Amino acid sequence: MGLGLYLIYFAILLIVPLWAQSRVKNAYKKYSKVASSSGMPGVEVARKILHDNGIYDVKVEETRGHLTDHYDPRSKTIRLSSHNYHGNSIAGAAIAAHEVGHAIQDDQAYAFLRFRHALVPFASIGSNMSFFLIFAGLIFGASNLILIGIIFMAAAVLFQLVTLPVEFDASSRAMDQVISLGIINNNEERETKKVLNAAALTYVAAAAVAVAELMRFILIYLGNRD
C-alpha cells in the first residue's frame, strides 16, 4: 500500500469518526436546549407514535447514560436516556421518534431490519475472530488464514452496510410521524432534520471505517500472494 493510500486510510480511520461524533454532540447539545412547540416529553412522543400506528406491545423505558437511546427488538422495548425520556426538547423528540421508527420497522417486518437481525451472529463472530485469524496468518505466513479472516471480517462489514438503510429509513419514518402528528411545527422541521442527519453520520462513519479496514487487509492478502 503506497503512502497516499495509507494517508487516506488513516484519515478515514481517525478523522471521519471524530468528525461524525462531533456533529452529533454539537447538534444534540444545541437542540436539547430548545423546547418543542408541543412540549411533549420523549416518553409521550414515543407512546403517541406507537399508538397512532396501532402498536401496543412495545414498552417505553428510561435508561441510564447519555445518548444511550435504542430499540430492543428481543424484549420489544424502546429505551430512552433520562434527558430524552423526561425532556421536551426538539432533540429529544427527534431521537424518541427515531427509535419508534425501528419499532415500526419491526412491526411491519421491514426487510433490511430482518436481514440485519439475521446477520448479528455472523457479524459477532466476524468481529471477534477476523483480526486474530489475519494476524496469525501474517505471523506464520499462512495466506489461507488471512483469507479466512477476511471472509469473517466481510460478514461484520456487511452488517455495518445493512445498518445504513435501516437507520436512514427509521429517521425518515420519524420525520413523517412528528410532522403528521403535530409533535413539531413547520418551523421546527429543519432543526429536527439536523439532529437526525447528524446521528445518521455516525453510522456512515462506522461503515466507512469498516470498509477501509476490509480493503486494507484485502490488499495485504493480495500482496502476500505476489
TrEMBL record:
Residues spanning the membrane: 6-24, 118-140, 146-166, 200-222
InterPro entries the record matches: Zn_peptidase_2
Keywords from the UniProt entry: Membrane, Transmembrane, Transmembrane helix
Metal-binding as UniProt keyword: no
Pfam families documented for this protein: Zn_peptidase_2
PANTHER family per record: MEMBRANE PROTEASE YUGP-RELATED
Protein name listed in UniProt: Zn-dependent protease
Annotated organism of origin: Sutcliffiella rhizosphaerae
